[in-house]
Amino acid sequence: MIDNFKHKGMRQQLVLAVKSKGITNESVLNAIGKIPRHLFMDSSFLDHAYQDKAFPIAADQTISQPYTVAFQTELLQVKKNDKILEIGTGSGYQTAVLCELGAKVYSIERQQELFKKTSKFLPKLGYRTKKLIFGDGYKGLLTEAPFDSIIVTAGAPFVPNALLAQLRLGGRLVIPVGDNVQIMTLYIRRGEKEFEKTEFGEFRFVPLLEDKN
Ligand code: SAH
Alpha helices, DSSP H only, in the chain? Predict the structure, then answer.
């Protein structure tokens, strides 16, 4: 697992690209500047790793575009020691960003191949999550609720009630909602049954799939 000056230089270019698209949170930009994204992809794809693009990983899934990762992370307003639930572990890149920000991360993945691969890979890079779970993200993680924030990294056809219910008061859910195109949506829990909803622009994700079983 090599991370050399060439990679670091490419990464700084990526930080500039993400910044020029409007990301301002310094901690988020630092995380992108630090995490060796090329190691989250097949080694033959080095040239693609530091472009601001999504890219195929195993099991017909994608590693999200760095700008999208930064945009979603910014909306979470992560504070050190926040308890965060991620739906869609995938390559683990978004997970690593959350770890860099000092969050306690729980992440759910429904593809066993990716779950296994990423479970082995993240600790090798020094990223210690609280728990990686093989399961169905639609259900959230009731045993660990409530969460300071929840991030969904796949396109959700609707907003699962379980996820809203697992936010603490003041907690934030960032979820791309829609079928072919998704609207990035932020929910802030303001009361037992009150949620403040804000919509951001259009994004494209692989779909959040229903339970396989
Ligand atoms: N955060 C990832 C993005 C991966 S793409 C990264 O940075 O690489 C979205 C991921 O969501 C895929 O790995 C897909 O398998 C997973 N996914 C889809 N439906 C799911 C569900 N119901 N529960 C958990 N994960 C799901």
Answer: 5-20, 26-34, 46-49, 66-76, 93-100, 112-124, 161-165
